[in-house]
Write a structure and sequence with these properties.
428 residues, alpha+beta, PH-domain like, seven-stranded antiparallel beta sheet, 22 strands
């Protein structure tokens, strides 16, 4: 994507007549003296009014005027490039099943509607794309309330968030159908994944578990065991094969065997869009006992290697993760269970409010970033690096991710079981 024109720029950084270029990553402004890249990752809003383009970024505002007939094309190309970048930070891919323009109310932001917003329905989310930081992704896996009344589609998610989509015109029915089809397909897919991991689980049990553990969400083992004892046993068998075997025993001591939480994801889907997680790097030099350098996270691959079924087809392995709340209920330890040969670290978080809400928002934050697990513990300095621009954008547009990151208390490294236990107890 590329578009160039000329105009006049007024800002605190660059002023005067300038060449203006729209690229996939930035708006480039070049005057006789200066050149500035206004990266879409840092743009707060885009507005076109009175033949003037206003680009508000985190560090400065840029007013572009004297654009002539290029004003509206420049605005449209800027919006398109900005929208593409927002889609990337929301980890959506492929073509939407339905799309429209209409009014959107994101209740966590305001009871007032955003007017004329692009709405796109993907296989796992509804994406609303206003021209500012109000863009939001409603994850269909976590929808526990849906209504379509008076030409308004309402979605409520497990964390209590609500979004409404209205004035969609002739596109209302296709959008509503795509949302409902997506919810059904994801629930059916989750049910299949449960019975794939444990064929002994009956269909009704799998249906109940799919409501308890949508989208890879970790749930209390007591609840899982109460619904399907064989599935709970299967999860613990997978953990026993992983590097987290001993730490899981400690987590059960900390939280209690019924309160410790376990979630799972097919490994092939753990990182989204069929990509390997570029941030999950194996530690070098010291194997499983290595201390990770800033920006690194050990490769925590499947706790269950892919195996062939009787037909010879490969069955996916699973990434399991464990969330252990402290007895006080204001902190928790998180571990991603990998194979025995993998290095690992435990993340600890301190939070306010009910543990059950934090647990849900933790799972939703991970799902929103396609399970790129390092993002939930990167320092602000690391997040500021250019290669992490999508994660900065995701944090700007995801309250759960901001909450999880702000609650990070530290990491306990696996050198020995005793030293690890000491670190966890100190952090909790």
């Amino acid at each position: 994507m590329s578009f160039t024109c000329k105009g006049t720029v007024v800002s605190a950084i660059i002023n005067g007549d300038a060449d203006i270029s729209v690229t996939a990553d930035a708006l480039k402004l070049t005057s006789l003296i200066d050149s500035v890249n206004v990266f879409w990752a840092d743009v707060v809003s885009i507005e076109f009014k009175d033949y003037t383009l206003f680009i508000r970024a985190k560090k400065a505002e840029y007013i572009l005027s004297k654009l002539g007939q290029s004003g509206e094309p420049l605005y449209n190309h800027a919006l398109s490039a900005y929208g593409d970048k927002v889609r990337k930070c929301m980890f959506v891919s492929g073509q939407p099943a339905a799309k429209a323009k209409g009014d959107v109310i994101i209740h966590e932001l305001s009871p007032q509607p955003l007017r004329g917003v692009a709405v796109e329905v993907y296989n796992d989310c509804v994406l609303s794309l206003p021209n500012d930081l109000s863009a939001r992704r409603a994850p269909l896996s976590f929808v526990n309330g849906f209504s379509d009344n008076d030409f308004t589609i309402s979605l409520t998610t497990m964390d209590g968030k609500k979004a409404e989509y209205s004035k969609l015109g002739y596109d209302h029915a296709p959008v509503s159908k795509a949302v409902q089809d997506g919810i059904r397909a994801l629930r059916a897919k989750m049910t299949d994944q449960i019975t794939d991991l444990d064929p002994r689980t009956e269909s009704e049990q799998a249906s109940q578990l799919s409501r308890l553990m949508p989208g890879g969400l970790a749930a209390p083992m007591g609840l899982i065991r109460g619904i399907a004892p064989t599935f709970a046993a299967a999860l613990e068998e997978k953990i026993a094969e992983s590097r987290a075997a001993e730490t899981y025993k400690v987590f059960k001591e900390i939280s209690g065997p019924d309160e410790v939480c376990v979630g799972f994801k097919p490994e092939a889907q753990s990182f989204g869009s069929g990509e390997e997680d570029p941030l999950s790097q194996g530690a070098e030099g010291e194997g499983a006992n290595a201390i990770n350098q800033p920006g690194e996270l050990p490769d925590q691959s499947s706790a269950d290697e892919s195996t062939a079924d009787e037909s010879g087809a490969e069955k996916p392995g699973y990434m399991l993760w464990i969330a252990a709340p402290s007895p006080a209920g204001n902190s928790c330890a998180i571990e991603f269970a990998g194979a025995e040969s993998d290095a690992a670290a435990t993340f600890v978080y301190r939070f306010e409010g009910p543990w059950n809400i934090f647990r849900i928002r933790l799972g939703m934050a991970l799902e929103a970033i396609a399970w790129k697990r390092e993002v939930i513990r990167l320092t602000e300095e690391e997040m500021g690096k250019p290669e992490n621009d999508l994660y900065r954008m995701a944090e700007d547009r995801n309250e759960s991710l901001r909450l999880i990151r702000s609650s990070f208390a530290g990491r306990a490294i696996h050198r020995s079981l005793e030293s690890w236990k000491s670190q966890v107890n100190e952090l909790l």
